[in-house]
From TrEMBL:
<dbReference type="InterPro" id="IPR036779">
    <property type="entry name" value="LysM_dom_sf"/>
</dbReference>
<dbReference type="InterPro" id="IPR018392">
    <property type="entry name" value="LysM"/>
</dbReference>
<feature type="compositionally biased region" description="Low complexity">
    <location>
        <begin position="139"/>
        <end position="176"/>
    </location>
</feature>
<protein>
    <submittedName>
        <fullName>Peptidoglycan DD-metalloendopeptidase family protein</fullName>
    </submittedName>
</protein>
<dbReference type="Pfam" id="PF01551">
    <property type="entry name" value="Peptidase_M23"/>
</dbReference>
<dbReference type="InterPro" id="IPR016047">
    <property type="entry name" value="M23ase_b-sheet_dom"/>
</dbReference>
<dbReference type="Pfam" id="PF01476">
    <property type="entry name" value="LysM"/>
</dbReference>
<dbReference type="InterPro" id="IPR050570">
    <property type="entry name" value="Cell_wall_metabolism_enzyme"/>
</dbReference>
<feature type="domain" description="LysM">
    <location>
        <begin position="81"/>
        <end position="125"/>
    </location>
</feature>
<dbReference type="InterPro" id="IPR011055">
    <property type="entry name" value="Dup_hybrid_motif"/>
</dbReference>
<comment type="similarity">
    <text>Belongs to the E.coli NlpD/Haemophilus LppB family.</text>
</comment>
<feature type="region of interest" description="Disordered">
    <location>
        <begin position="137"/>
        <end position="176"/>
    </location>
</feature>
Length: 303
């Protein structure tokens, strides 16, 4: 009987003893199979398929990261003259809070549908021609504002200047006029009594009482930049732009008597008092300086 090397596994040697009458070729075949079985464990440690799958996951992850959607205007976030859309925003509210005609903002940003804006989207809120939105420019003269969303865009509102001095401001709150900023001789927009004063946290203007149908008049010369009921909490609303610094808002009206882009004069009847989106008949009146609400009582003449 032929002998085998001692390097064969013990199981192979035992098998050869028990198969004494088998031929040499059969024993060699058994040995080859046993040797193949001993080496198989090392080949299964890192199959090619696993390595390939691992690489595919890594590449896919990189693609997913690189493919994250960036919202329009993201590169301008935080820059002067730009506004980042917040939850609940509408174009009307964005225009009011930035002292601009919302239609101009739509045009400056080439928005196809102003009703489709996304939280985090960054919008230009100064004219595209303004190289520096912080520069004080010559405002539209009171009573002669003629720019509309279809014509030349208005000059940018200055971002940091003192409030305009009213015609009869209280002695305790003088408001000097900044360079390039017109004085405005404000008047009361309604004849009723004051029922709620300005509170920066709770009430952005004054609430004035009256009867349904009482006249609401323009507090100063200006142009209608909004007339409608598209801003929640304001009911039937009119917004006037007086110059590049000031807007006024007249809310909760029963009837609106003016249209967008219409020029109005101080004292002109623009609406009738009502209780739309309010718990009682009243006028909610705001003065906004570069979109920020200020206390109208510091601008209106004493009654």
């Amino acid at each position: 009987m032929a002998t085998f090397p001692t390097t064969l596994p013990a199981a192979a040697q035992a098998l050869t003893k028990r198969a004494g009458r088998l031929g040499l070729s059969c024993l060699l075949a058994v040995g080859v199979l046993l040797l193949a079985g001993c080496g198989s464990s090392s080949l299964n440690r890192a199959p090619v398929e696993d390595r390939g799958t691992g690489m595919s996951r890594s590449v896919a992850g990189a693609v997913d990261t690189a493919g994250v959607k960036q919202l329009p205007g993201f590169e301008n976030a935080g820059k002067p003259g730009y506004y980042t859309v917040k939850p609940g925003d509408t174009m009307i509210r964005i225009g009011l809070e930035n002292g601009q005609n919302w239609r101009d903002i739509v045009r400056w940003n080439s928005l196809e549908n102003p009703n489709l804006i996304e939280v985090g989207q960054v919008l230009r809120v100064v004219p595209p021609t303004a190289e520096n939105p912080l520069v004080v420019t010559r405002p539209v003269s009171s009573g002669t504002a003629t720019a509309s969303s279809g014509t030349a865009a208005p000059a940018p509102a200055p971002a940091a200047s003192a409030a305009a001095r009213p015609a009869s401001a209280p002695a305790s709150s003088p408001a000097p006029v900044a360079a390039g900023e017109d004085e405005i001789a404000w008047i009361w927009p309604a004849q009723g009594s004051l029922i709620a004063g300005f509170d920066d946290a709770k009430n952005k203007g004054l609430d004035i009482s009256g009867k349904a149908g009482d006249a609401i008049v323009a507090s100063a010369d200006g142009r209608v930049v909004y007339a409608g009921a598209g801003l929640r909490g304001y009911g039937n609303l009119i917004i006037l732009k007086h110059n590049n610094t000031y807007l006024t808002a007249y809310a909760h009206n029963q009837t609106l008597l003016v249209k967008e882009d219409q020029t109005v004069k101080k004292g002109q009847k623009i609406a009738e008092m009502g209780n739309s989106d309010a718990d009682r008949v009243k006028l909610h009146f705001e003065i906004r300086r570069q979109g920020k609400p200020v206390d109208p009582a510091k601008y209106l003449p004493a009654k």
